[in-house]
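Memo to structure team: turn this sequence into structure tokens by end of day. - J.P.
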Amino acid sequence: MNCPRVEVDLGKIRCNTQTLVGRLGPGGIGVTGVTKAVCGHPAIAQAMLDGGAAGLADARIGNVQRLRAAGLKGPITLIRTPMLSQADQVVQSCDASYNTESLVISALAAAAIRTGTVHGIVLMVEMGDKRDGILPENLADIAQRVMQIPGVALKGIGANFACLNGGAPTAIQMAALSALSNWIEDVCGPFLKVVSGGNSANLPWAFGEHATGRINDLRLGEAILLGVEPVSGDQIGGMHTDAFTLVAEVIEADANPPLSPITPIDPTAQRVRIVANSGAFARMILAIGHQDTNILGLSMPVGSTLIGATSDHLVIGTPRSLPTVGSEVRFQMNYSALMHAMAAPDIKVKLLGELPSPVLWPPQGKADHLAVV
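Reply from structure team:
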């Protein structure tokens, strides 16, 4: 079997999505499945849709094009401000996009007119993460400009939290976002279909016992894929945390190897972490390294210790029996490790469980307000 590889349990992804949809639905919040960490893998995206996600979202147009090429017909939103140079591609592949720049919005409008379509615009508001977004005091002016541009339609507003500054949103911030949506409607007139309150870091707020206001969408990637809440890293109740497994092959194994002190060529690069040799000890080297994943984001097998890694070697110590060359070692990954592994060209993806089948659109049931997300 190919190594290294990522094994993906589609059933667990579908189940995680169902759990989140079921918990958020009573509060009027729909789920948008974010596929950027899995590079827009079509089967994983379809598992999200089968689990009840109202639509899909990604940050890279190449990933969206991969989804479209695989035949996914549901709504897909680009959630990073589009590159000016990719306006035509964004309009061709995405129902809507998140935007902060008037120049880009004008380019999207021109591209939409050329293709005879109308592109949905969701304006991103800066609410404290300090990454991207329009300042609240400038939002109404830009929203009014969008309303006057043929080829685009103002569909909603959104905000982001816990990406750059790591801080989870507060109830005050979420109430402010709801108030902003009401203000924009008062100024511009149309009802905003989408008020997107953020990502997986917003789940503790969304699960709380309080009114959710106008927030009717969360963009969820890490929670669906890994079953954890990003800020704390804690497992979300009822969720699977092992839908993805990284498998690597042992290429060298030694019993009680000498562990002499090693000084890296670059003293700032801690390439090797020396582990004291106490008692029986085995060292194994795996055919995987920094070029393949975030090594520090891997959960070591029980009883094993990370010794170090280079670009293409992972060295692990274990007090257990000497591993066999050619045997496989399995790892769980955090979000960073998963993202790097799924993008690595030398890592294969193996799908487990029942393959998802295409779903009909629009999705049945409530959540008409999420038609563009």
